[in-house]
Task: structure prediction
Amino acid sequence: MKLNLSKILFASILIISLQSYGQDDEETSKSNIQTYTPSKLLDKGQWDLKFFNNLYTQTKSTGADNSTSKKIVEGRQTFFTSTLEVFTGISDNNRINVGAIIEYRSNTLGGQSTFSPFNFEDSSSSRNGFSSIAPSVKIQPFKNISNFSFQSALHIPVISKGDDSDQSKAFLDQSAWSFQNRFFYDYTLPSGDWQLFTELNTEYGFGDEDSFANKTFLLSPGVFMSYFPSNTTTVLGFVQHSQRLGDFEQNSTSLGFGGKIQLNDTLNLEALYSNIVRGHNFQGLGNSFSVGLRALF
Result:
């Protein structure tokens, strides 16, 4: 009897150990691109650096009506934005991150080539420079909902007041301050191969009466669906809408696709393409090309 009990006890411990190992292996097999969505916060002492580059180019825009049937043909306008985001976890419960966002822009107008912003020149039809810096905080408000979070940032312009309405200069960025709140939520389907991500971005512009963005409210929802062919790669499609309300009103809708790949335990690479398919009130109807490099450590 003692021998049988010993065998049973040994077998039970072995089964529990194997199950625990299998669960740990399953958790650790998840890559950063699967785990660290924008909804996920960093652990205390962990760092997240993201270097994101976007090139938007257009040759036409809508008229003042709410239809893309009336389009205005214009010389090519191209806007390049390079963004550096740095965040770190600071709380013992891993529910508060702090960081900063820095933006650099290079824009060209008047029919120059698509890649002319990379000349980084200043003239009557081109301009480049740092445009804003934003101290930020990211919070997971509900302890039991780890896949929901929001990020608040105060974008402080580093360009002169009224620059975005000065016709003697090429446009660089809005000169109004902006208080931004972004809400993130993701859901992984039971199969584990598909992930739904949603975002709601809100911004309020203030502080410069001469800026087009002053006293305006921007509402931008987006829906992203990702498929993981493997745990280190994903392809995705998305739809986004942008609605500006207030002293200046404008809206647009864009469709896009892209992908991400985990290069190693630290670095992720992503590429996106989007096209603005409709708009209102002289909204540009252009294409956007983006490349981002993210480091998690």
User: Anything to note?
Assistant: Helices lie at 2-28, 32-35. The first strand starts at residue 47 and ends at 62. The chain has two helices and twelve strands. The radius of gyration is 23 Å.
